[in-house]
Design a protein that fits this description.
This protein is an alpha/beta fold and 403 residues long. It is 53% helix and 14% strand.
Length: 403
C-alpha cells in the first residue's frame, strides 16, 4: 500500500494538479492543513483526500512528522502542492517498491524555471518505518534518520530512480518574489547555522542564498567553510558547495572557478544532477579570459554530454548551439537551436540565436522570420525592453518589415 503525505496551507491554486498526478498510483491521500483560509480543504476532499488539521508549529519538520503519523501505507510518497508526479515514472517506481529490502528511493525532480540546477534529488519516497522521521527547520529531510537507521539495520539499501519522477515550479521568479517568504527562509537558515556552526548543509544553503542576493563576500566565506568541513563521502552537499563557490568566483577568478566545476563533475552523482556544473563550465570556457581552441572543444563536449544526459532539456541544446557557433560549425549550431525549440518553443534565446546563425549562413528570409518570432516571444513574456533592443539590433541587419 502506498500513501501520499502532504502538508498544505492556502494551496487552492495548484493543489488539484498535484493530486490528479498521483490518482490511481497511490492508495490513499492524507493531507495535513496548517491553517488554510481558501478552498484548499474543499479541493483536497473533492479529490478523495483525507484532511487533518494542525495549527502551524513554526517549523516544517514537526508538521511533516505529524502528517506522517496519519498515513497507513507500507510506503509513503511526500509531495508539496507545487510538485506533481510525472506519468513516465510510475512503472519504474512500482518496480523499485517491490524490492524487499529497499528502504528509500531518491527521486529526480525537474526544477522548472530554476536559474541553476535544472534537476535536484529529493528523498521523498520511503518505506513507512517507525525510525524514519523529518528533521531540519527548512528544506526538511528524512536523510538524517535514514542514515542512523542504516547503521542499526544494515540489511536495508537505498536506490535512485533513473528517470525524472517529479516536476516542481516553486523556483519560478514570480513565486520567489514574495519578500515575506524569502525573509522567513533566511531566518530559518540563520537559526540553523547558529545552532550548527560550520555545518556543510547549512553553509551550502545560506552561502548560495547570499551569493544569489549579491552578498558575495559572506557567501564565499560560508561556502569555503562548509567545503572545508564536508566529508568526502557526502557527495550531494559537496557538489552543491563546489557548484555555488564556482558560481561566486566565476567573474573574479575564472580559472579557480573552472577547477571547482571540474571537481564537482568528478563526484559520483547521476549525470542529470550535475548539469549545472557541466553547462556553467562550458559557458566559462567560452569567456574571453579562458577561451582557446582547446577550451572551445572542451566546452562543446561538455554540452554534448549534457544533451546526452538530459535530451529532454532545451537548455542543454541551447548551450550546444552556442558552443557549435563559437567553433564556426553553423549547420550543427542551427540543428542544436532547433532541437532546443522542439523541446521548448517559448525559449526566446534559442529563437534569437537561431536567427543569428541563419543570417550568418546566408539564409536572410529564415533569419528575418527567426528575429520576428524571438521579438514576439519576448513581448509575450513581458520582456518589453529586451524585445525593443532586439528589434533595433536585428533591424540594423535585416529589414524586419519585409514580407
Amino acid at each position: 500500500m502506498l500513501s501520499l503525505s502532504m502538508i498544505v496551507r492556502n494551496e487552492a491554486e495548484r493543489l488539484e494538479r498535484c493530486l490528479a498526478s498521483v490518482a490511481g498510483f497511490v492508495d490513499e491521500m492524507v493531507l495535513l492543513d496548517t491553517g488554510s483560509s481558501d478552498a484548499t480543504i474543499a479541493i483536497a476532499e473533492s479529490c478523495g483526500a483525507v484532511v487533518r488539521q494542525l495549527p502551524w508549529p513554526g517549523d516544517f519538520a514537526p508538521a511533516r512528522n505529524e502528517a506522517l503519523a496519519h498515513v497507513n501505507g507500507d510506503w509513503v510518497l511526500v509531495l508539496d502542492a507545487d510538485e506533481w508526479l510525472l506519468p513516465e515514472a510510475r512503472q519504474p517506481l512500482q518496480a523499485l517498491m517491490a524490492e524487499p529490502d529497499l528502504l528509500l528511493i531518491n527521486l529526480l525532480r525537474q526544477e522548472l524555471g530554476a536559474a541553476q540546477s535544472p534537476y535536484s534529488n529529493v528523498s521523498r519516497l520511503f518505506r513507512r518505518h517507525p525510525a524514519i522521521h523529518w528533521s531540519r527547520p527548512y528544506h526538511s529531510m528524512v536523510d538524517d534518520s535514514v542514515l542512523a537507521l542504516l547503521e542499526k539495520e544494515p540489511h536495508w539499501h537505498l536506490a535512485d530512480c533513473d528517470v525524472p519522477a517529479l516536476a516542481h515550479d516553486g523556483y519560478r521568479s514570480d513565486l520567489l518574489a514574495s519578500g515575506a517568504k524569502a525573509e522567513r527562509l533566511r531566518q530559518a537558515m540563520e537559526a540553523d547555522l547558529a545552532a550548527n556552526p560550520g555545518d556543510p548543509y547549512a553553509c551550502a544553503k545560506l552561502g548560495s542564498l547570499e551569493v544569489s542576493e549579491g552578498n558575495r563576500e559572506r557567501g564565499i566565506a560560508l561556502l569555503q567553510q562548509g567545503l572545508a568541513r564536508c566529508p568526502a563521502s557526502r557527495h550531494p552537499e559537496r557538489y552543491e558547495l563546489l557548484l555555488h563557490l564556482a558560481i561566486a568566483l566565476g567573474s573574479s577568478d575564472p580559472k579557480h572557478a573552472c577547477q571547482l566545476y571540474r571537481q564537482a563533475l568528478e563526484l559520483p552523482l547521476p549525470p542529470r544532477l550535475t548539469l549545472a556544473a557541466r553547462l556553467n563550465l562550458a559557458a566559462l570556457l567560452q569567456e574571453p579570459s579562458t577561451t582557446s581552441q582547446g577550451a572551445l572543444e572542451e566546452a562543446c563536449e561538455l554540452c554534448r554530454q549534457a544533451c546526452a544526459a538530459a535530451p529532454e532539456l532545451a537548455l542543454g541544446w541551447l548551450h550546444l548551439g552556442i558552443s557549435e557557433r563559437r567553433r564556426g560549425q553553423l549547420p550543427a549550431a542551427i540543428a542544436a537551436y532547433r532541437s532546443a525549440l522542439e523541446r521548448d518553443p517559448s525559449l526566446a534565446a534559442a529563437q534569437q540565436n537561431l536567427a543569428v546563425a541563419l543570417l550568418l549562413s546566408g539564409d536572410v528570409p529564415g533569419a528575418r522570420s527567426g528575429f520576428r518570432q524571438a521579438i514576439s516571444l519576448l513581448e509575450q513574456q513581458n520582456r518589453q525592453s529586451e524585445a525593443e533592443a532586439l528589434r533595433q539590433q536585428a533591424g540594423s541587419m535585416v529589414k524586419l518589415d519585409d514580407q
